[in-house]
Amino acid sequence: MNFQLSVSLVIAGLFAASVLAWLLTKLNKALGAWVTVVASAAALTMMALLHGEIGSTVNLFFLQFTLTEYGWFFSVIMLAVFACVSFFNIYWMPKLIHPAAYNMLYLLALTGTLGAFSARDFITLFIFWELIVWASMFIIPFGKSRKASVTYYAFSAFGSLSMLYGILFLYHKFGSFEISSVLQQAAGDPTAAIVAFVTIGIAGLIKLGVFPFHIWLPQAHGNAPEPFSPILSGGLVKAGGFAAFLIVAVMPSYKAFSTNIEFLGRQLTMPLPNYALAILGAVSIVVGTLMAISQNDFKKLIAYSSVANAGYIIIGLAMAGGLSTGGALMHIFAHAIASAAAFLAAAAVVHRTGTTKMNELGGLIHRMPLTYLVYLIAIISMAGIPPMAGFISKWMLFQSMMGRGMAFIAAAAFFGSIGSFLYVFRPLSAVFLGQLSTKHRYVKEAPPLMMFPMILLSLASVVFGVFPNWVLRIISQVQTSVGLEGLTLEGTKIIASNGAIDPTLIVIIFGLGFLIAMIIFLRFPKSRKVPLMDQYTASEFIWTPELLHYATDFYAPFERLYQKAPRTETLYRTIVHKVSELGAFASYAFYSFKPGTVLLWVAIVVVAMLGGSVL
Amino acid sequence: MNMNQVFLGTLTGLIILVFAFFWQTTLSGVTRKIVARFHKRYGPKFYQEFRDIFKLLTKTGISHGWVYNFGVMMALGGIMGTAMFMPVMQFAAFPGLDNIFIYVYLFAVGMLGMAMSAVGSGNPLAGIGVMRALTQMVGYEVPFMVVVLAMVYGHGTASVSELAAVQQTAGLATWNIVKMPIGTLVGFICLLGMLGKKPFETFIAPAEIASGPMVEYGGKQLGMLMLLHEFSIFIEVSLFVNLFLGGAVTVVGYAIKYVGVFVLASLISQALGRFKIDQVIKYFYRWPIALALVQALIVIFLGWGV
Amino acid sequence: MALDILKNPVLLIAVPLLLAFLAVFLKKIDKALLWIAAVANAASAVLLAVVYQGMTVVELGGFKPPFGISLVLDEYSLIGVVVLNVLFALILLLSGKLVKQYATVLLVALAALNGIILTGDLFNLFVFLEIAAIAAYIFTAMDKGFKHSFNYLVVGTLGSGLYLFGIILLYNIFGSLNMFDIRAQLQAIGGAGAETLTLPLVMIFTGLSVEAKLMPFGGWVKGVLHKANSLVGTMIVSGYALAVLLAVGRLMDTVFQMTDAVLIAFTAVAVGTLIFAEASAFSKKNLREILLFSSVAQAGLVVLLFLYGLTVPAVLVLVNNVVSKFVLFTVAGRLAHALETDDIGELKGVFVKVPLVGVGFTVAVMSLIGLPLFFGFVAKINALVGLFNAGNVWLPLIILVMAVVEGAYFVRILTTLWNTGEEGEVSSRDNLKAFNLDGMKGLGVVSVGIAIVIVALGILPVLNIKQFFSVDFMTFVQQLLGGM
How many domains does chain B have? Predict the structure, then answer.
C-alpha cells in the first residue's frame, strides 16, 4: 500500500486511531483523550492539503472514495468542529462512564462522516452513514437520557433505511451504485427521480432535524454528554445537509422535475418537490424558534435553534439558485462554527458549575468573562447580526427569497430571524448577566485548554464575518462544480441581482461608530463603580437576594400565546404507543398459554389459505 | 471599492451623523412643545433636549461593571454606524451598498448592546424591560419586512438609496404611499412600534417597571442612551420617508415629510393608552401581518404598485 | 480408507443416535457421551466442509432413491450442518452445567436435527421432525415448564399431523417420496396442475410453520421460551430454528409449485409474522420475551425470502440470525439465572460489570439489526437486492420499516444495559447497582470470539466486491471454509 496522501489514507488512519484511542484510554484516560485531539487535528490538516486531489478516485479494499468540491467543503467544516471540540474530551474523561468506548466512538463517528462525504458509490455512502449513526448512538446515553438515544436511532434508522430503499431501487433500475452517474440518470427518469428525491430527501431531512422529523434533535443534543453535543449539532447534522445537497444540486432536482407550473398567473420559480422542501423548512423555522423561546435548559435551547437553522439551510438549498445555495452553504459553515462555540461555552459552564438549568445560574460574566465573550460572539452569529459570519448567510438567503417573491416563506424566515434575538438573548441574560448566585461566587474561568478551541471558533466567526469572501470564493467553486451558477464577488463586496453589501465596509463603519462612542464615553467624567446588589428597588428592602434575578419563565407573556398549541412529540408518542399496543395485542391473541387458542388460529388460517379452492 | 470611495463615503457619513444629531434633537424639542399644546400646556424650550443630553453627559454617574459600560458603547456605536448609512435627500454615504438588511441588523447590534448593558446592571426590572422590547420586536419587524419584500421584489433592488431614487423619477405618482397604500399603512403602524411610542411603549412602561432597561442608568451612560434614542428615531423615520414617501430632493420637501411623519406619530401616541406585551403581539399578528401579506401578494401576483 | 468412512455424512446422525442408546444403559456417563457426540459431530462437519467436492447423495441401505431414503449433502446442507454442529458444541460449552439428566434427550435431538438438514426424503423428514419435536417436548420441561411443554406438545403434534397429511397427498399425486424426484417430475410437467398441489402445500406449510414458529401457528413459543434457561432457549432458537427453516427452504426449493393465490397466502403469513412479531417484541420489557419474538420475526423473514426463491440470501439471514441469537439467548439466560430477573429496567448497567459479555452481546445485536461492518449487513443487502431483482418493490419497504422497529427495541436494550441512572440522570459508575455476576468469564471469551468472527465476515466479503454481489456466494463461502 503506498502512502501517498489520499482520502483512503486519512480514513484508514482514523480507523486505526480509534482503536489506538480505545487501547490507550484503558491505560491512561487523559492520554486516550489526547489521541482524539491529535487524530482529528491531523485529519483536518491532511484534508486541507487534499484540496488539490479533488476529482481523483482512491480505493480502500472494496470501498471507493472520490473527493468532490462539495465533499471537501463539508469534510473540512466537520473536521474543524471535531478538532476544536476534541480538546474538551480531556476534561470529560473522569465524568464519563465508558471513557475508552467514548474516545473510540468519537473517532469512529468522524471516520463515518469523512467516508460518507467522500464516497464514490452509494454502498460506501450508506456504510459510513450508518457508521455515524451507530457510533453516536452509543455515546448519547452516556449523558442524561437513555430514551434520547433510542429516539435518535429510530429516526436515524428511518432516514438511512429510507435512503437504502432508494439506493437499491436505483440500482435495480440503472445497474450501478456510483453516485453522480446514477443521480444524473435518475434526473432523466420521472419515477426514479421521485423515488430518489423522496427517499434520500427524507434521510437528509431527518438528519438535519427539519420539521416534522425534528423531535429527536433537542432530546439527543440536549441530553448528550457535554463535549458531544457540539459534535452532534455543529457537525453531524450537516450530514443531512449533504444528503439534501445531493438531491437538490447534484441530481439536480430542477432538471428532474418540471418548473413549468403556473400558479395564479405566475410561473413557479422552483419545481414542486423543492417547494415542499422549502415549506417544511419554513415550518421548521417557526417551530424551532417558538420551542427554543420556551426552553429553560441551556442546551435544549441551542438544540431547538439548530432545528430553526436547519430550516434556513433547507430553504436555501431548495431554492437552488446561485445566491441561495451559496447562502445555504455559508449558513452551514457559519452555523456549524457558532453552534459548536455555543455548546462549548455551555460545556465550560457545566464543567465549572455542574448545571445547565438557566434559572439556577446567573451573573457568571463576573467569574467567566472569556466564556461570556465566546458565547456572545456565537449568538451574534446565530442571530445573523453583523459583523459575524451568520449575517452574511442570512443576508444571502433573504435576498434570494425577496428576489423570488416567496412572501409566506420569507415571513416565516423573518419571524425566525427576529425570534432568534429572543432565544439567544435568554441564556446570555439568565446565565451570564444579572445577579451572581452565592453558590457560584468562587467559580473559576474555564481552563486554558478549553479556552483555546473556543477562542479559535470565535475568531473564525469574526474573521469570516469581516472577510466572508475568503469562504465565499470556495463556496462559489463548489456551486460551479455541480453546474449551478456561482457567486458574484468583487473585492470585498457580494453582489446579487437585487442588492449588494460590503461586509468589510459595514465593519469599518461600525468600528468607526464604536470609536466615536468610546471617545464620547472616555471624554466625560468617570463613573463610580457600585456593587451589583446596589439596585433601584423602589425603596423595597431585598429580603431574598437570591431571587433578585429575572431568569425563570423569561418569555412568559409570549409563551402563553402558544402554550396550548399541539406538539409534534405527541404525534410520535402516539405512534409508538400504537405499535406497542399492536404488539401487546398480538402477544395476547396469538401467543396464549392455552393450546386451544393456537389450534383455533391454525384452523382459521388454514381455512383462509385454502380460500374455498379445495373445499 | 477603492480607498478614495471609502474615505469620501465615510466623510459623507460623518456629516450625515452630525446633521442627524442636530436635526433630530431639535425636532424632538419642537415636538415636545407641540405635544404640550396638545395637552393644553406650554412645554419646555425647543432646545431642552440638548440641555438634557449635555447635563447627563457631564454628570458623574455610577457603573455596574465593564459590560454595563461596554454595552452602551456598543449600542451607540451600532446605531451611529447605521445612521451613517442613511441617505438624506440625495446625499448618501455609500449609495447602492446600503442594503435594507444592514439597517435592520446593524440596528439589532445596537439593541443587543443596550440589552446586554441593561441586564448587566443586575436589576431584574431591566431584564423584564428587555424581554418586552425583544418580544415587541418580533411583533413589528415581521410585517414591516414583508412589506419591504414586496417593495424589493417590485423594484428589483434592496438598497434604500436606490429605492428612494426610483420614487423621485416622476413626482407624487411614483411614491410608494400612492402605489402601495396598504403597505404604507402597515409600515406606519410598524413605525409606531419601532419608535416605542404608545400604544407600544410597553418596554419602557415608566411607572410599571421603572422605565425597564433604563432603570439603572444615570450620568454619561444615560446621556449616551439619549443620544442613541435620537439617532434611532432619525433612522426609523428616515427609513419610512425614504421607503414610502420617496425621499426628497429639496431641503423643504425633506423637512415637511420628516416633520410630518414624526409629529403625526407623536400625536397619535398621545391619544392612546399602553398595550400589555401579549396584546402587542396579538395586535401585530392580526391585521398588520395580514395586510402586509395581502400587499405582497398584490405586488407579486397582480403586478400592481411597481 | 478410514478417511472415506469419516467422510460419510451418515455419521452425523448415526454417532449421536448410537451414543444416545448407549447412554440409556450407561446412565453414569451420559453427559460424557453427550460431549463426545457433540465434539465428534462438530469435527466431522468441519472435515466434510474441508473435503467437499460437490453434491453427494448417500443412499441408506444401498436402496436407490426414490425407493430408498437418501441423504443429500450439497452446499446448502453443508452450511447447515457445519453451523448446527459447531453451535451445538458451543451451546454445550457454555450451558453444559444445565444438562442434568437430559443428556440422552439432547443426543437424540442432535441426531434428529442433523437428519432434518441432510435428508432428501419427505417421510424421513417427518420422522426426524417428530423425533426432534419429542426431544424438544421433553427438554423444554426443564425448570418445571410443564404446562408450556404440554402446550407445545399438543400444537406440535397437530403440526406434524398436518405435515403428514400433506405428504400423503403428495405421494398420492406423484408416487414418490423423494424431494428431488418430485422436483424432476414437476419440472417435466412445467408448472401445469399447480392447483392440485394447493391442499398438500398448505398442509405442509402449516405443519412446518408450527415448528418454525410462524405466526399464528407458533403460539407455543412464548410459553416455552419466556422463562427458558440458556440451554433450552438456545437449543430452540438456534438449533431447532436453523434445522427447521433449512428444511422449509429445501421443500420450497424442490416441492413447492405455487399458484399466485397460494403464494400470496403464504406471503401474507410470512409478512404478518414479521410485522406482528416485531411489534410484540417492541412492546415487551423482558429480555427473553423480546428475543423470542425477534426470532419469530426473523423466521418470518427467512420464510419470505425462501418463498421468492432467494435461497442464498435466506441462508445468509438465517445463519446470521441463529449465530446472533445463540449469543444473545445464552447471555440472557445466564443473566436471568444469576440475577433472578430479566426485566431490562432491573438490568441497568449490567454490562459495566461484565464488559466482555457486553461486547459480544452488542456485536451480536448489531449484526442482527444489520448494521454495516457486521455480517448481518451482508445478509441484509443480499436479501434486499434479491427482492428488488425479483421485481418486488413493496416487500423491501415493509422489511425496512420493520427493521426500524427492530432497531429501536434492540437499541433500547443496549443503551439500558450499558448505562446506569434514571431518565434525566447522567450515566455514571457511581449509581451502579451491585450485581452478583461471577463465572461469566467463559461466556465472555466465547461471545467475544464469535463477535470477532461476525466482524471478520462482515468485512471480508466486503474486501472483494465481485464476490459480494455475485450469484455464487456458496462457492465463495466454501472456499473460505476450505481455506481454514
Answer: 1
Cβ <8 Å between C155 and A599: yes
Look at strands C70-73 and C56-59 and give their pairing.
Answer: antiparallel
Rounded distance between C-alpha atoms, residue A35 and residue B131, angstroms:
45
Rounded Cα–Cα distance for residues C339 and C328 (Å): 16
Closest CA to B100 of B149, B134, B142: B149
A126 touches chain C (CB under 8 A): yes
Task: Mark which residues 131-170 of A lie under 8 Å from C by CB.
Answer: 131, 134, 137-138, 140-147, 149-150, 153-154, 157-158, 161-162, 164-165, 168-169
Mapping DSSP to helix (H, G, I), strand (E, B) and coil, where does residue B121 land? coil
Give the pLDDT mean for C154-171. 90
Q: Running DSSP on this structure, what letter comes out for residue A266?
A: E
Q: What is the pLDDT of residues C209-251, one digit of tens each?
A: 888 888 878 788 888 888 888 888 899 999 999 999 999 998 8
What is the DSSP code (8-state) at residue A249? Answer: I
CA distance A365 to A428: 9
Question: In whole angstroms, what is the distance from residue B72 CA to residue B217 CA?
Answer: 10
Range of the domain at B288: 3-302
Residues of A in contact with C349 (CB under 8 A): 97
Is residue C57 within a helix (H) or strand (E), and if so which, with residue range?
Answer: strand C56-59
What residue ranges of chain B have pLDDT lower than 50? none
Indicate the pTM of the whole model: 0.90
Q: At how many degrees (to 10) do helices C355-369 and C375-389 cross? A: 10
C196 and chain A: CB distance < 8 Å anywhere? Answer: no
Alpha-carbon distance values, B108 to A327, A372, A466, B148, C143 (Å): 21, 19, 17, 17, 74
Alpha helices in A550-612 (DSSP H): 556-560, 568-590, 595-610
HSE-CB at A211 with a 13 A cutoff on CA atoms is 24
pLDDT(A301) > 80: yes
Q: What own/partner pairs with CB < 8 Å and gap ≥ 24 does C225-228 have? A: C225/C288, C225/C291, C225/C292, C226/C286, C226/C288, C226/C289, C226/C292, C227/C143, C227/C145, C227/C288, C227/C336, C228/C140, C228/C143, C228/C145, C228/C288, C228/C329, C228/C333
Q: Which amino acid is at C451?
A: A
- Let me know: does C300 contact C215? Beta carbons within 8 Å: yes
Distance CA A232, CA A235 (A): 5
Q: What is the pLDDT of residue C474?
A: 44
Helix (H, G, I), strand (E, B) or coil at A434: coil
Q: Count of residues for chain C? A: 484
Name the pairing type of β-strands A262-263 and A499-501. unpaired
Question: Measured between alpha carbons, how far is A159 from A206 in angstroms, rounded to an integer?
Answer: 6
Contacts of B81 in chain A (CB under 8 A): 506, 509-514
Helix (H, G, I), strand (E, B) or coil at B88: strand
Neighbour-count burial for C277-292, b at 16+ CB within 10 Å, e otherwise: bbbbbbbbebbbbbbb
Query: Is the peptide bond preceding residue C216 cis, with omega within 30 degrees of 0?
Result: yes
Residue C467 has a pLDDT of 40
Is B306 an 8 Å CB contact of chain A?
Answer: no
Sorting pLDDT into bands at 50, 70 and 90, what band is A1?
very low
Neighbouring CB atoms inside 10 A of B89's CB total 15
Q: How many residues comprise chain B?
A: 306
> What one-letter code names the amino acid at C417?
L
Q: How far is CA C125 from the centre of its chain?
A: 17
Interchain pair A63, C396: CB under 8 A: no
Instruction: Please report the pLDDT score of residue C262 as a whole number.
Output: 83
Please report, to the nearest 10 degrees, the dihedral formed by the alpha carbons of residues C249, C465, A192, A213 taken in order.
90
